[in-house]
Amino acid sequence: MPRSILVVDDEDLTLRTVSRGLRQEGFEVFTAASGEDALTIFAEQKPDLTLLDIVLPGIDGVEVLRRLKQSNPAAIILMMSAYHMVDRAVEAMKLGAYDYLIKPFHLADMIATLNRACEMLALRVRVRDDVEQARGRYDFGKVVTHNEATSRMLEVARKAAEYRSHDDPSPRREWHRQERFCQGHPLR
Question: Coil, helix or strand for 144?
C-alpha cells in the first residue's frame, strides 16, 4: 500500500515539482497552497506524512504544524523553507517536526528523508501491533483460582505490570512480601 503525503507550499512550481517526484516514488500525493487548505485536507485525507512550507499566506506553516500536532500528536511532519530562519526552525522542531529541509533541495535528499520517516512510521505501527497482541497474552483477568494466596499474588503482579515509575519501589517491596508469604503455601 503506497504511503500518502500532503505537500503544502504556496509556490506552484515547487508544489508541482515535488508532487511529481513523490508520485514517481510511489507516494499518493495531496496538495495544498495555503495553511487553511492544509488543515482541511489533513483532516479529510489523514495522510501518513506532511511536507509543510513555513512561509504561507494566511496561517503560516508553524501555526499549521501546531494545529496538526494538536489534532494528531503522532503525525509525521517535515518542514521546509527557502529562508534560513533559525528561530522558526528551532520552534518547529520543538513543536514536533520530524525534520527541516532548506529549499532548494535535491529530490533525492528529500526522498531519503521521507523514507527514513516512513521507516519510523512502520516501526510505530509494528510496536502498536505488538503491544496490542501482548496485551491479550498477559491479561491477568483470565486466570481463575480459588486460592487466596494466588489471588493476592496475581493482584500484585497486575500492579507490577501497570507500574511505570522507577522511583517508587513500593510495588517491588509488596511483590517480595507476597513472594515470601507464598513460599510456604503450595498453589492449589
Answer: coil
Q: In what order do the strands lie in the sheet with 76-81?
A: 28-32, 4-8, 49-53, 76-81, 99-102
0.90 surpassed by pTM: no
What does the pLDDT average to over 148-170? 69
Fold of 4-133: Rossmann fold (3.40.50)
Query: How do the domains of the chain map onto residue ranges?
Result: 4-133, 138-183
Chain CA centroid to CA 187, Å: 43
> What distances in angstroms separate CA 171 from CA 90, 135, 140, 148, 174, one per listed residue?
41, 20, 16, 19, 5
Residue 173 has a pLDDT of 46
Three cell numbers, residue 17: 515539482
